Amino acid sequence: MYLLITYDITSDKKRRKIDKILSSYGVRVNYSVFEVEIRRHLLPTLREKLAMQMDERDSVRLYFLNKTAIESAEELNPKRGDPFSMEESYVL
User: Fold this and answer.
1) Domain range for residue 34?
2) 23-64: pLDDT as tens digits
3) CA 17, CA 13: separation in Å to the nearest integer?
4) pTM
């Protein structure tokens, strides 16, 4: 399953923790955006880890992407490459 995860975290300390969690699951594609490929049974664990770091002012959004969305995505800076086709696997 593919996810696009965005976040807006008020605390620098909590933001670093969120970054660390998301970096273990996927690839940062923008300052507060990660692309993640994850097995369905691990999604509840990821949600729980993220929720534990948040308070009422914070926001984390998960966008579920299908294969068509992934295949039709464009990167306008070709030097960056395609995070979902990286040799290093992030499927958990």
Assistant:
1) 2-68
2) 999 999 889 999 999 999 999 999 999 999 999 999 999 999
3) 7
4) 0.80
